Amino acid sequence: MTSPRWSRRDFLKRSVGAAxxxxxxxxxxxxxxxxxxxxxxxPLGRTGFSVSLFSLGAQGIIERAxxxxxxxxxxxxxxxxxxxxxxxxxxxGHGVSERNVGAVMKHRRAEVFLASKTHDRxxxxxxxxxxxxxxxxxxxxxxxxxxxxxxxxGDLQRIFAAEGALKxxxxxxxxxxxxxxxxxxHRDPDVLLEGIRRFDFDCLLMTLNAADIHHAxxxxxxxxxxxxxxxxxxxxxxxxxxxxxRSDGITTMDQALGYVYTFPISTAIVxxxxxxxxxxxxxxxxxxxxxxxxxxxxxxxxxxHYVADASFFKFQW
Length: 317
What we know:
Elements: H1 4-26, E1 41-43, E2 50-52, E3 54-57, H2 68-80, E4 85-87, H3 96-108, E5 113-118, H4 123-137, E6 142-147, H5 153-159, H6 165-175, E7 178-185, H7 189-198, E8 203-207, H8 221-228, E9 232-236, H9 253-261, E10 267-270, H10 275-286, H11 293-303, H12 307-310, H13 312-316
Parallel strand pairs: 3-4, 3-10, 4-5, 5-6, 6-7, 7-8, 8-9, 9-10
Antiparallel strand pairs: 1-2
């Protein structure tokens, strides 16, 4: 029998091949001579939407109260840079994030695949949260509505109950208020795996960074299953709120993003604090080339001695 590590390496080799295929034609914008480099695109699973490889996680400055002007400028500049996917949630800044996103959506809604979430596990609570999100986001529909931070089997039991959150998601989709359904989490990949086995979600938002392989990895069975189901896979926690960076470990965002982009994900959401970070991330994404398995192994080895920091969300949240 093949060991889990070899199975994972085989999957990674195929992932590199898939990334090369995407970068040469299937998902990326092809450039004519002297044409400016554009933001690369990949298919968002079976949704029919081509999503920017680098996308906007509406945390960072966007969820901070009192920073509305800077937050909205960052959102506008992200769209100008070619980002076409925004991920937010009512819990980000207790509604601040959605309000800032909504101020931009009022003028640029047609440019964005907009995703938000429910952290409530009940039907009634989710319907209430959804209406509040629409008001803050200044829109009458969401492209993707997701179950937020699914951590335990108990969460799944409440979500899948007769009056659980999934009932609300299905009703909203049937009404046309939501186009696609998703599930998210960053603590236990086995819980998410059970979730996507029990229901055919369109998208999966999951943690993935260069320390992931060392503890409760999301990149093995969970990612492989999602890819096999043709789900849109959105990666998060790439820099682990800055805690993945160390002088004796991962030192650059180029390394952090390059590692994640090499997997067969659709996009990676990143929260940012200023325009300089946006410009850096966009530039890295435009010049991305898939890493070799040896390069991936090297980056993983760099994080092996500080897993509790680089994957802190698996232990503390």
